[in-house]
Structures are given as C-alpha cells and as structure tokens.
C-alpha cells in the first residue's frame, strides 16, 4: 500500500479565486473541512478548501496562515 500525503499551499486572495475557478471548471469536488462532507464551500476562518486526488492524496489551499495570527 502506498502512503497518502497531504499537500498544503498558501496563496493570496486573487490566486485563490483563480485556482478555485479552475477547480470548479474541472468539476473537482471540494470541501471546507479536512475530513468533512463534500460541501463545495470555502472555510471562512482560514479561507481554505480541501480536495482529494483519485489515489487519495489530499490537497489544501488556504489564504490565512495557521501559524501566524492576523493583524
């Protein structure tokens, strides 16, 4: 069995909107929580979404850092 990886990247709001547009255009299902249902929503706390590749790898895109508080 191959390992499953979680890839996360932080982007600016304009990049987020452009990438989300491409995800939607490609028909990729996404969700607002790491293990929740496919709700096709953006998590407003961190401005993030999650989606999985067919082989199980999980991707995350966010606009707010988990490590640094907003000012």
UniProtKB/TrEMBL annotation:
Domain VOC, chain residue ranges per copy? 1-64
InterPro entries noted in UniProt: Glyas_Bleomycin-R_OHBP_Dase, VOC_core
Q: Name the domain of life this protein comes from.
A: Bacteria
Q: What is this protein called?
A: VOC domain-containing protein
* Organism from which the protein derives: Undibacterium arcticum
């Amino acid at each position: 069995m191959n390992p499953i990886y979680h890839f996360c990247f932080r982007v600016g709001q304009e990049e987020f909107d452009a990438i989300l547009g491409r995800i939607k255009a490609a028909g990729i299902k996404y969700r607002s929580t790491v293990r929740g249902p496919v709700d096709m929503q953006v998590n407003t706390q961190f401005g993030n979404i999650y989606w999985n590749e067919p082989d199980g790898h999980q991707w995350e895109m966010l606009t707010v850092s988990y490590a640094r508080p907003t000012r």
